Every structure is written in C-alpha cells, then in structure tokens.
C-alpha cells in the first residue's frame, strides 16, 4: 500500500507487515475498530526517537529492523449501489441460520469476493505520533465552557505552540504536492476535495467532502471576521461551490448538504466539513462541536467580531491536549459564578 502524499516515494509499507499492539477504540454502531501497532520504518526514518511511543512496541519487534508506531482504523464498507442487483446472482456465497420463529429468520452470511465489493476500508496513520495516539484513544468527554478570556489565556497559547510540521500535510495539499488529482475545486481562497473518511464506492448518502482554506491565518472558528475585509465572502463561496460540485457530479440539489465547522477542530487550519444531509450519527456532527456554516455566516453579518466575543461550550476528550488546563479553569469559572450569585443576593 502506498499512501497518497508528497512523500509517497518514501513511505512504502504493506498492511501484512503490521504488528498489532493494542486496541485504541472500537465502535459497534459504526462497525469500526482503531488499533495501534508498528510497521517497519522506511529507510529515511530509521530512528524511532522521531516518533516515540513506548506503548506502540510489539512483543515480536526485532531490534534488527526499526519499527515505528502505526494506527489503523478499520471499518466495514457500505454496500455499493450494485450490491442489490447482485442479490439475485449469487453475491451472497453462503449463509448459516442463527434462529427462526414464525415468519422471521436471522442468519449470518458470507459474500462472494468481488473487486467492486471490498470487505473493509482501512485508514492508516504512519508514522503516528503520541498526539495521534491520544486523539484516537477511547476517552471520556467533559463539557467545558470557554470564555473569550479563557481563549486568550489558555487556548490561544496552546494553538500557537503547535509546530508547523503538525499541519505539513495541509500545506502539501494546498500547494498541490499531494492529492492534486482529487481536488474538485480550487480558488485563491480555498479548495474542495473528498475527505479521507469517505468511501466513494458506497452510497451517495455517505458523501463527505472537505473545504480547506489556502491561507494559514484562520486557525479556528474564533479567527473568523465579518465586515468588508472579513471572511463572509469566502464562506459564502465555499457554500455555493459545494452545491455546484454535487449538482454537476452527483445530481444533488439545494438542501442536500450539511456544512459545518468544528470547535475545537482536530487541526488548526480552517476547514469546513461538507456531508450529505441524510448522514446521521457521526460523532463530528454532535451538539457542542459542530457549528453550521449558515449560522456562522449569519452571525458574522450581524456582528463582525462576534465569534471572538462569544462564550462557547463544547466537549473535550480526556486525551486532548487542552483537557487538564480547561478542566482546571472550569473550577475557576464555578467560583466566579458563585461569587456573582452571592453579590446578586
């Protein structure tokens, strides 16, 4: 398997060389599992010190061959449109009855191997850093309140401390060094391309695109501004271009898309998630993380600096880099609220 990136000639690996370490997370509802292990290091990165992870080392790891941490997200693929036609031509190779009562039966089934019907989709992060491992590890959520003051004191320094290397893959996409053939639309302000989580061979209802800002100045929703020199024009163009793309390629009309922005985002380079309106149950669409693009545009038209002045409440995972500082800050907010209550009494 050769990852699509500017370094594809350097990072060569095969899934069969993966050495399992441990399960990071699993989701029966989405038929997916995320595992941590190791893969042989490419010749250009023969030192695991670059990507340290004591937990990633597998018992069978050989000292003669350096190995680096790798994360695999494996999920059952959705049925392609051609699947139902195959039901009458032997696509279900065999079955085994589980139980039967009256007119109801349920059974396990095994599908015939076909090139257009893959069993699973595998996303790979390699080499994976400790930040990646923490991000994909199952974690408890804490709802936190972020005031503008907390943003300036806690969150903004956290964002500014991120090394440029963490978003190098974004720069590679923007600069056309990687995934250039997948870009569906490119303007001077943004580009739109399929998200890696989308399997295009599945039903159109699983559609998942991403709009990525070309410039690095907008790191999160907090940086968006209205006014004559603000970002409303770019946001409205993202919306219009997205609808043009899905109308031309997939025959989808107005109202067929859900577009939203995460806060906190998974990486601090502004992007908009574009999914089919029928999608439901995705973690990234939950209240407390997803903010509809239309609502953001409306707020910025109402007040150009409103997103820097609002207090946001959102969920933080226990493995997030902001978790400890924001959890401690909540105690300060509670004390402040109680003090204000006593003054009013």
From TrEMBL:
Family matches, as InterPro entries: DcpS/DCS2, HIT-like_sf, Scavenger_mRNA_decap_enz_N
Active site: 271 (nucleophile)
Pfam families in alphabetical order: DcpS, DcpS_C
GO biological process, one term: deadenylation-dependent decapping of nuclear-transcribed mRNA
Domain of life: Eukaryota
Binding site for substrate: 169, 179, 195, 197, 262-273
GO cellular component, one term: P-body
GO molecular function, one term: hydrolase activity
Similarity section: Belongs to the HIT family.
Protein name: Scavenger mRNA decapping enzyme
Highest classification ranks of the organism: Eukaryota, Fungi, Dikarya, Basidiomycota, Agaricomycotina
